[in-house]
């Protein structure tokens, strides 16, 4: 919604495009993106009137405070709200978490942290994923009382590319042998095990137990 001038559409043309997209979408929910300082609250209101139900509000990763009024306006309009912290390589994981908190407190229901420039190398990305892991375990797990839990083991299972049936086996082995379930799953992914090889988890758990004893 904020980028009409940048991409060459007029506001009238953009509203028409939103209406056309809403009319054509059978299952998808049409979202509009606003950059504070370029897009306006009035433009957001017109987008809502055109039928767009989702508001995405993007800022530089250190400037979440400029999004506050826009999240409030979007919520007042009954829109689903998504925050967007751009150029995430410019800020460390703790700083990103603080900026995301600003957006959440302002009304964001979901916050994305994005590498807009493609500048993060593997170690940088890993540091930010490790901070997702902490949020999953310490924030999400306590408020989700039943499966599927978004806990550390579940996230590592996806990160390591491990088949879903391994999760429960890893948790049981973790309790039996006193080793972390997420570490078991990481080793399973490194070994490339596939469905049907769940019994190999015992060997991994015993290896981890021996490593811990040393």
Describe, in short, the structure shown.
The protein has helices at residues 4-7, 11-24, 41-49, 68-76, 93-106, 122-143, 152-160, 166-177, 181-191, 200-213; strands at residues 31-34, 54-60, 80-86, 110-113. The protein is an alpha/beta fold and 214 residues long.
Q: How would you characterize this protein structure?
A:
- With about 210 residues, the protein is α/β, with parallel strands linked by helices.
- The chain has two domains: about 5-120, Alpha-Beta Barrel (TIM Barrel), CATH 3.20.20.70; about 150-214, Helicase, Ruva Protein, domain 3 (Orthogonal Bundle), CATH 1.10.8.
- It is built from ten helices and four strands.
- It has helices at about 5, 10-25, 40-50, 70-75, 95-105, 120-145, 150-160, 165-175, 180-190, 200-214, and strands spanning about 30-35, 55-60, 80-85, 110-115.
- Strands 1-2-3-4 form a four-stranded parallel sheet.
- β3, α5 and β4 (about 110-115) form a beta-alpha-beta unit.
- α4 (about 70-75) packs parallel to α5.
- The termini are far apart.
- Residues about 1-10 have low confidence and may be disordered.
How many beta-strand elements? 4
Helix content: 55-70%
Q: How much is the radius of gyration in Å?
A: 22 Å
Cα-to-Cα separation, first versus last residue: 59 Å
At the fold tier of CATH, the topology name of the largest domain is TIM Barrel
How many helices in DSSP terms? 10
| Biggest β-sheet: strands ordered side by side in the sheet | 1-2-3-4
The name of the CATH architecture of the largest domain is Alpha-Beta Barrel
State which percent range the strand residues make up. 5-15%
The CATH top-level class label of the largest domain:
Alpha Beta
* Overall average pLDDT: 85
Order of helices and strands: HHEHEHEHEHHHHH
CATH homologous superfamily label of the largest domain: Aldolase class I
Shape: elongated
| Unreliable residue stretches | 1-9
The total number of structural domains is 2
Give a short account of the largest sheet: 4 strands, parallel
Helix-strand category: alpha/beta
Oligomer: single chain
């Amino acid at each position: 919604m904020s980028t009409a001038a940048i991409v060459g559409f007029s506001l009238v043309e953009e509203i028409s495009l939103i209406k056309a997209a809403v009319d054509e979408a059978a299952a998808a929910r049409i979202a509009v993106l606003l950059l504070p300082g370029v897009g306006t609250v009035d433009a957001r209101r017109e987008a809502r009137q055109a039928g767009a139900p989702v508001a995405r509000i993007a800022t530089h990763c250190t400037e979440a405070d400029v999004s506050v009024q826009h999240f409030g306006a979007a919520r007042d309009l009954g829109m689903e709200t998504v925050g967007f912290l751009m150029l995430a390589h410019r800020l460390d994981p703790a700083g990103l978490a603080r900026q995301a908190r600003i957006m959440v407190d302002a009304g964001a229901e979901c916050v994305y942290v994005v590498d807009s420039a493609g500048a993060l190398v593997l170690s940088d990305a890993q540091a930010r994923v490790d901070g997702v892991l902490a949020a999953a375990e310490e924030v999400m797990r306590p408020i989700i009382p039943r499966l599927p839990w978004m806990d550390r083991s579940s996230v590592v299972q996806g990160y390591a590319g491990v088949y879903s049936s391994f999760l429960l086996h890893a948790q049981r082995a973790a309790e039996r042998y006193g080793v972390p379930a997420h570490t078991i799953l990481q080793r399973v992914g490194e070994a490339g095990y596939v469905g049907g090889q769940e019994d190999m988890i015992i060997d991994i758990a015993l290896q981890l137990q021996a490593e811990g004893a040393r």
